[in-house]
């Protein structure tokens, strides 16, 4: 199975990329327990910022961006992580998904996550990210993961699960959805498709 993480972190190293890696490990481990081997790819949006901007104004994706879009749309499951800017996802994050065909993510299992300096921005997951992927008709898992600065290294308390527990639960939910999703049929090449159309013809 193909599992892709999209990280919109701008710095190196980045807490956004760190969260993406932890979620990816959790989902991959859970898939392994279900008997599925997963290949992992990470799309770093900071490396594609110029290409995304060019595509928005020209309508044509440069080769590197086209390859990233193919990776995302061709995956069996997605993990998407953005830093919070002005109480919402980053402009780069939104612009990347703006250049993807609106039908390309239909039914695809998606785990949404975000990072920020304070816990008071955690609702970005529900008021911004979940509606975005609902519009794209993706199958978003129930548990969304937000990591504030104080969450790193925290084990939680009697009222709230710590970050590691939330990562494990979200990863398990994504793996379960990926494992039960019907297998994608391989696309036919042009010759095979033509042969099939000719075979379906009926002559009087």
From TrEMBL:
Residues 1-152 form the NADPH-dependent FMN reductase-like domain. Keywords: Flavoprotein, FMN, Oxidoreductase. Transmembrane segments: none annotated. InterPro entries: CE1759_FMN_reduct (IPR023932), Flavoprotein-like_sf (IPR029039), FMN_Rdtase-like_dom (IPR005025), NAD(P)H-dep_FMN_reductase (IPR051814). GO terms for molecular function: oxidoreductase activity. This is Oxidoreductase. The lineage of its organism: Bacteria, Bacillati, Actinomycetota, Actinomycetes, Kitasatosporales.
